[in-house]
TrEMBL record:
SUPFAM superfamilies in alphabetical order: FAD/NAD(P)-binding domain, Succinate dehydrogenase/fumarate reductase flavoprotein, catalytic domain
Pfam assignment, any one: FAD_binding_2
Source taxonomy: Bacteria, Bacillati, Actinomycetota, Actinomycetes, Pseudonocardiales
Alphabetical UniProt keywords: FAD, Flavoprotein, Oxidoreductase
Coiled-coil features, chain-numbered ranges: none
Organism: Amycolatopsis thermophila
Protein name as annotated: Tricarballylate dehydrogenase
InterPro entries per record: FAD-dep_OxRdtase_2_FAD-bd, FAD-oxidoreductase_2, FAD/NAD-bd_sf, Succ_DH/fumarate_Rdtase_cat_sf
Required cofactor(s): FAD
Domain FAD-dependent oxidoreductase 2 FAD-binding: 6-466
Domain of life: Bacteria
Amino acid sequence: MSDNWDVIVVGGGNAGFCAAQSAREHGARVLLLEKAPREWAGGNSYFTAGAMRTVHDGLDDVAAFVEPPATDRVDLDPYPAEEFLGDLRRVTDGRADPELSEILVGESRATMSWLHELGLRFELMFHRQAYEVDGRFRFWGGLAVGTVGGGKGMIADHLAAAERHGITVRFGAHVTGLLTTAGGEVRGVRLAGGEHVEARGVVLTSGGFEANPAMRSAYLGPGWDLALVRGTPYNTGDGITMALAAGAQPCGHFSGCHSVAWDSGARPTGDRDLTNQLTRGGYPFGIVVNANGERFVDEGADFRNYTYAKYGAEILRQPGSRAAQVFDAKVLDLLRPEEYQAPGVTRVESDTLEGLAKELGIDETRFVRTVEEFNRSVSGERFNPAVKDGKHTDGVRPVKSNWAQRLDSPPYVAFPVTCGITFTFGGVRIDPTGAVLDTAGRAIPGLFAAGELVGGLFFFNYPGGSGLTAGAVFGRRAGRTAAA
Ligand SMILES: Cc1cc2nc3c(=O)[nH]c(=O)nc-3n(C[C@H](O)[C@H](O)[C@H](O)COP(=O)(O)OP(=O)(O)OC[C@H]3O[C@@H](n4cnc5c(N)ncnc54)[C@H](O)[C@@H]3O)c2cc1C
């Protein structure tokens, strides 16, 4: 294989392919090195729903890059930049880096068109981001567009596009270190086995440390070593470790991560067939209880897109890191079949609340009291899943702020869940061009980064669909800078 590379990209997920494409389009000879074997191509990006948050002007605007929808009974409000920025600031408690946030939001829409031109296919996500109300499909939660075929489709499209554009992809290539000159310039990488590969620039896109239990417990805290991993087992923080060793500046919320309610029977790391189907995102329509039979979160605090990424951590903190989502018969139709009726779903059903508690092995008396108190506290008018309907509870703690309905229609159905970690928030600091900065704030020559391993954007929580967009926007920037 030629040693004559201009740019090496480390990690073949969405951010890596975007960086590689961008470097290529700016004239570079690009080698993408991926640690996993080909059967595990695509990193965490493969496991996604392919949901991508972008600014847009409504249906006519997204029609420029999505496949034509099967119906015109669609209500899709524009999602302007101020709203995306506002959502990002709100859920990150005002901590998201302002400059990176502006770039992410400001370039989101143009990046969707760029990806489409590269060959990625998009569609409106009727099945996960819209509800049919009064005969019309109403999109909610600032998120409407996803890749055709979810993460699996996205990675198939990226691989095909990489081949079309002459990007060399090498699987089973485990990068273990950076090659640095005496002057501190990064000029290539070292692979497991000792091989050196040189290039003018290296773009790190090798993900976070979510699949590394030692780093999880060191940075996220006790108990996080026991979380189940939703995605690839190969994201073990290698890129962050080697960048820090080269003098990169740590950045962002190192003790924070994205984590969700996840099927309690799932395997320790991601399932290539079921991917994100092991997520349990229907909790806004029921209640969530711990092993003591007590509620512990506001299930209806906001649209799922704005709460799901922080509720995994709440589950981790409960006794045994376990909980159960409880629904009655009248809301079962609102639970996404892809998640709640997938093969192997962990599920319990009973005609009585006592029976349900017994099946779940939780405190029966307390659970029945929790439901009775909850039912008595429900007030408000019409239930509407497509808007924040304000149908709330009065007098129970925690409150349920929206979509509160009595649990009174048997059979009662419960889904045992645990904490599934998605990705970690801490990483390296980049400048707006994608260059990695050192601890004195200077760009490290030849070193660039994008994707999950960049810190500074997400804190505490995350607006659903932002990870892939961030990887694409900053991958595109980093690739362009590396090629230059
Ligand atoms: C189940 C699930 C569902 C999700 N759904 C969505 C969604 O719908 N929308 C959204 O925006 N985000 C979603 N996310 C988050 C999303 O996956 C990430 O934000 C995004 O994929 C990160 O892309 P990336 O390219 O940075 O990392 P990845 O896609 O994880 O790619 C990193 C790659 O680097 C490789 N690598 C690691 N170490 C090395 C090394 N030493 N040498 C070489 N290669 C290495 C890994 O094998 C991997 O292939 C989801 C995540 C999961 C797990």
